[in-house]
Amino acid sequence: MKMLSSLYYRYIFLRDNWIARTFASLVGGPTVPSREMWDSQYKKGVWERLNDLSEQAHNGVVLSYIAYLRPGSSILEIGCGEGGLLPRLRQVGYRNYIGIDISEVGIAKCQQFSDKKTTFLVGDAESYVPDAPFDVAVLNECIYYFVQPIATLQRYASHLTPGGLFVISLFDNDQTHPIRRCLRTTFPLLDETTVSNSKGTWHCLVLAPRTAARENAAG
Q: How many whole angstroms from its chain centre is CA 106?
């Protein structure tokens, strides 16, 4: 079964067809957690561990990319959870920020950070439509919970400003390898940093739509 699951993530996961859905049901492929499950876990404090010391290295890389490449930018954080990245993001500085998450409980915990340029909204990442273009989309440890991760980013790409970027962090495991590989082939890779500590390894990527990459090169 472990071998079948590995084959699923390696070759089938990113396909949206009956083969992928059938294979997933047989080998325990990815199942998308429900809103109720997320709410329950946030109520229990399950995700407070994201504030642990072991999480700070990859968070630091995400923040440093934003500070270097797009300081003072308009930011959309997809899957913001309880807003753990926001206090440090304020130190980097931004023009305006929107954080979305499917969990009402998680977003309620974020509201302490709200102000005139900081907004938190309950929304499903795979269907949310931004009201205005943004410079940076941050996906910090959330993309592998999507049914269609690549299609979702392709949709958000149409809402980026010229030269806009995706800044993405993924934990390294069998599930994320095919996602990372497909991200690299779908969007230009501007940079990638690997961070390891006692907990494991993360990959932090900066990606841009091809039109934005051409504009950056021309500039």
A: 16
pLDDT at 117 over 90: yes
Per-residue pLDDT at 186 exceeds 80:
yes
Q: Tell whether the model's pLDDT for residue 27 goes beyond 60.
A: no
Give the pLDDT mean for 189-198. 95
Question: What pairs with residue 204 in β-bridges?
Answer: 169, 193
User: Which domains does the chain show, CATH number per domain?
Assistant: 1-31 (no CATH), 45-218 (3.40.50.150)
Euclidean distance between CA atoms 142 and 165, whole angstroms: 17
101, 75, 95: which is closest to 167 by C-alpha?
75
Exposure of 44 in the CB half-sphere (CA atoms within 13 A):
7
Q: Are 13 and 30 in contact (CB under 8 A)?
A: yes
Instruction: Provide long-range contacts, Cβ within 8 A and 24+ apart, for 196-201.
Output: 197/54, 197/57, 198/54, 199/54, 199/55, 200/171, 200/172, 200/173, 201/171, 201/172
In the predicted structure, residue 124 carries a pLDDT above the cut 60: yes
- Helix ranges (H only) for the chain are 2-7, 18-27, 35-44, 56-69, 86-92, 104-110, 149-157, 176-186, 210-218
Structure tokens of 64?
A: 């440093």
The model carries a pTM of: 0.83
Whether the Cβ atoms of residue 181 and residue 205 lie closer than 8 Å to each other: no
Token pair in block for residue 155: 């949709």
CA dihedral 143, 44, 59, 162 (to 10 degrees): 40
